[in-house]
Amino acid sequence: MKRNRNIILLLLLACAQMIMAQHVLTGTVMDKVFNEPLVGANVYVANASNRSLGGSIADVNGNYRLSIPDQKDLSIVFSFIGYKTQTIKYTGQKVINVTLDEEGMALETVEVTAKKIERNSMGQSAREMISATQKLTLGSLETAPVTSVTEALQGAMANVDILTGADPGSGSSIRIRGTASLNASNEPLFVVDGVPLPVDISDDFSFASANSDDYGSLLNISPADIESIEVLKDAAATAVWGSKGANGVLIIKTKRGSKGRLQFNFNTKYEFSKERSGIPMLNANQYISMIQDAVYNTVSDLGSSAAKSQEYLKLLYNTKEIGFDPDWQYFDEYNQNTNWLDEITQTGFISDNSFSVSGGGDKANYRLSLGYLNQEGTTIGTGYERFNASFNTDYRFSDKLDIALQYSFTRGVTDANYVDDTDELKKASIRGHALTKMPNMSPYVIGANGQRTGEYFTPYESFGMTFSNDKVYNPVAMANEAQNRTIATNSRMTFVLHAKPFKSLDYFGTVGFNGQFTKINRFLPQSVTGVAYEHESSALNYDIGKDLLYLTTENRLVYNQSINDNHKLLLSGIFQTSDKTTSTYSSRSANTASSGITSPIAGSTTAKGGSGKTINRDMGLTLNGQYIFKEKYMFNAGYRWEASSAMDASGRWGGFPTFGVAWHLGDEEFIQRLGFISLIKLRYSWGQSGNAPTGTSPYIGKFSTVTPGYGDMSAVKPESPDLTHLKYETITSNNIGVDVGLFSDRITFAVELYTKVTDDMLQKKIKVPSSTGLSTVAWYNSGKMENRGWEFNIDVAAVRTKDWGFNLGFNISQNKNKVLELPENQSDETYTFGNKKYAYRVLMGDPLGSFYGYRYKGVYQNVEETYAVDKTGQQIMDINGAPVVVKNGDQKVYPGDAKYEDVNGDGVIDENDIVYLGNSNPTLTGGLNFTLRYKNLSLVAALHGRAGQKVINESRINMENMYGKNNQSVAVLRRWRSEGDNTDIPRALYDKGYNYLGSDRFVEDASFLRLKTITLKYQFPENWMKPLGINKLEIYATGYDLFVWTKYTGQDPEINLKNPDGSAAQVAIDSNNTPKAMRFAFGLNLRF
């Protein structure tokens, strides 16, 4: 016993000696240029052999605390990604304050990092956060050839799937961890400087043809004004934003002034863009031959004596547009070889300029910025112009009170090609018209000298109509003369009051106002259509106006208390309100006096008009608490109550709990002894969030009038009942994550595993008994859907010396979607048998985004192959013992027709043979970026890609069907003509047959890897610039979308999701949208 007591005494003395031998070093780590704290900077003590003997990380204020062992020849090493490492010899100092220099150009690259982050709304620093978040610092936006934020984010973050349109001012589709709702919004919430932005997205919103008011939340923010974007992915992170953040949150922080002398920044860049070669189409002779072939095949099937055959032959022989009659007055106009797509494309151009001034002192700081962008698209008649101005200031009255004020103004003008939804012809895109327009027709009237005049050739009736039994529009005239202009003005103000009555208590009061004022004018001049003046489509005007006023308030209390060195408590309470008022109007008229008068009030014929006003209100209260033990073990719990005017009193309030734990395993002694590990953080979070129905008060029953009613009176009938059963659909998420840093964070990576289950899904088109007087109910809660997946991202600072630097970033992710439950009385499918049609279904067990159709088996080569067989392979005979010929629908097939798999073996291809063909969810998404620097010269590149997405190539359907009078692609030159032709393209068949049913023939894998940007930059040496009063001058050249590696046969593999035929299927369909062009930019950045 005495011996044991002596041993214990010796151990205690040794420990005391070790403790007494430890010294404590404190200080700060700051950015040298901006004098800002470098949050998360690594500080460690190294011995003579440069082995780490212990380390620390700078906190939110840049402060660090480091224990120094009692040894000789020690050094203190300070490092941070993108900055030069600094080593200071330790000689017993108690305080060492350092400022780190940016490492040449490396800091300007896009980096994904979760370290350089301020405290969030609940008072948590990056070290204290438990949920799944990811942050992007956007210094490179000043030098990247992007016109919107989403262009820069694409491929930069794991499981943040972004698809952007190619037309100027076009919209973007963003999905964070998949699609969580069938009918509510799936777009994330955008928060700018603490204030949510309103985004109105209709159920049938098409991002490829969006208007400025629909995507204005991102286009109205200049990339040059943005400092960082943080993405919140799981429910524990998004809880504070309630149902609006159920699909993820993008928190945008804009640049602000800082203490120091007056600083000016000027950025300018010029860009040129050129489309790649389009889909090769038939020339004039090939087109006429194809039309003749199609008519002859149809006549052969019907028999030459049939009435239809006589009609078709008469059409063929008497149509001068495809005949050769030099005496006809329009012979020259129909004796051309026109590439219509070339006629409507041009070289695109962008001029982008921004200027800012900033500064500050002990009490206040400020920043003023101005920007102007002018863009011309690669399609004639498309363009985007944006003017933006912003001002922000911060003023500190005392250590206990400060305020922040921000104002921004943006005016954007988008010119798009004319689109009108009134009939099928006008709804089609100009590119769709151009690709299928008859190639022997001229865009212009041909003069006596055989040359084009400046007058558009616009025959009102013609054989070469784009759609059967409709009128002809000249795509070139449409692109140049028709108007589709959107003017979007945005005014945003934010006021923040910060009070600190006690050391551990902070109060933040925020008021935000956002006004979005949008006007859309569409005008179709008579000169474009060629119709008579009195025609209903002559000088057609259409005006749409939309004013949106959005007022938000937030009152936030944050209590942050440390209890000795072992315990810390974070408590927060947040109360938020929002009030959105939307006013709309529309008017439509025709027959103005001239093509120069585009106002609807000038039309002599008024078609229709209307106006409306809606109000939506929300409020929410969030309570959150976090306990931290020894800065290593963290426990978090919260609850949010929320109310929405979208539901009636019985379902208006929803409650959503969250919970999370985290362990800084890297701070354990047995890990620190390894030396090379700077961070290991294990995280788990669970939480719920809600999604509310879209629209204004959809729970209120509606009535509509019926005309005529009884006699001359109209009647009123119920359109939808009161929906007292509506409530939030609930999204429950689980997230497991690990963050790792190695070699003083020279290598950092994160891994996430998650599930996201949506219960009580908001459904539409639910069947109800006919006794109710209705067929379906608009909204109903029922069903369950799951998203599950994983994410991986890594950043490596591989080389970091004075002259050389090499940084690499990579991310890859997977999301799998599955519909788990559906109501039995769901009515979502709208399929009817016919060419081009697919079945868009939402079925249990299949992913959302699935589509269904027929299996294409090639072409019937001879008569024997047309005989039907049953499931066993036995030939089917009729009652007379003769072989039965397969029918596609109600029509017998002939050699050369399309062959589809007869799944049920009955000899008829119909709805019973429809099978699952695939879904539009990518298997993998990811991105890669790197920076290679040599002294002041750097090369920066970014790639992004998707794998496994199935796309319906509707463009091919339209250009390979040979069914009507449209021009077709050169692929149809391989069409079947006679027995022995080894081909997968059926024969030409005019107005007959089912040779292009919706099948896997037109389903393609749209996997791709795109070189998004590659930039070569040079920063002039500092010692050259300082005598001129210049802090920084750099020039650069950038190539954008130079290479795309893909097997997809369409013009661009990046295809947006659609809800075809009014379904909720969300399928990727290629409808000839403008493809991304190759772009070349040259720019200059100046700071003085």
UniProtKB/TrEMBL annotation:
Entry annotated with the keyword Transmembrane: yes
Record has Calcium as a keyword: no
All residue ranges annotated as the TonB-dependent receptor plug domain in the record: 127-249
Signal sequence extent: 1-21
Pfam families on file: CarbopepD_reg_2 (PF13715), Plug (PF07715)
Family: Belongs to the TonB-dependent receptor family.
Protein name: SusC/RagA family TonB-linked outer membrane protein
